[in-house]
Amino acid sequence: MTAANGGGGFLLIFLISTILIGFPLLLAEFALGRSAGVSAIKTFGKLGKNNKYNFIGWIGAFALFILLSFYSVIGGWILVYLGIEFGKLFQLGGTGDYAQLFTSIISNPAIALGAQAAFILLNIFIVSRGVQKGIERASKVMMPLLFIVFVFIISRSLSLPNAMEGVLYFLKPDFSKLTSAGLLYALGQSFFALSLGVTVMLTYASYLDKKTNLVQSGISIVAMNISISIMAGLAIFQARSPFNIQSEGGPSLLFIVLPQLFDKMPFGTIFYVRSLFATVTSSVVMLEINVGNITNQDNSKRAK
């Protein structure tokens, strides 16, 4: 998407959208969530002093459930790829034809559903241990490792010939290629990166005390998301020129194009580890919020 819409031009619109639109909306969700102090489903009913407004929270919760379903499918595919790559390390086979591999995975219900189930069980295991022992402990391990892996990939990509061509393509705006659809995609990416409109930030804010500075918290989240987005772009575009790999979007980018790229680099397996960490750190939060919505709504016990 970035490559098709002028590289740096798309990045610039994403940054502007994130700061001028995403950040204020993030603060609004923070204010609503902290003021209500309840689950996202009950937030609007409490603030509006009428339970009929709870449907707004249900819309966001449903959107989050759909998003979690999407993540579980992607996470399952990543587990399959990771297993194959580890098999290569131990000389247990594998294939370099990633287009054929990806097609074989998505066309085989047993593999696709089994991998998705395994990913969901991994998330359930983490969330079932609670916020402190589960999600917090997992995040303390995976988030720093995610940044370390990003730095490693970027450093390795910088050593490739003509790597700076990819960097310039990523950072230099070409507004002639930026379409109206690209503007909407950049805005949508801002919402997606900040988890806006899907009850995530409402729920997060409901746990904050009155002394917490919402602006500082918002700035930290926006800065972290922008940093991760730029690091991901650098990691991909630096290696794009040396290996002459054409850019694509959607699942084919993650499961066909990028595997070809990192398969040609030493320690390419680390790319799949990064992908798994990035997916799990997001999906466990989504699952926790879904669990929180259910338990807060009917007062059932968490274990159930």
UniProtKB/TrEMBL annotation:
One of its GO terms (cellular component) is membrane. The chain crosses the membrane at residues 12-32, 53-81, 101-126, 138-158, 178-202, 214-237. Keywords: Membrane, Transmembrane, Transmembrane helix, Transport. Its main location: membrane. PROSITE patterns: NA_NEUROTRAN_SYMP_3. InterPro entries: Na/ntran_symport, SNS_sf, YocR/YhdH-like. It is found in: Membrane. It is a multi-pass membrane protein. CDD domains: SLC6sbd_Tyt1-Like. The keyword Zinc-finger does not apply. PANTHER family: TRANSPORTER. This is Sodium-dependent transporter. It comes from Streptococcus pneumoniae.
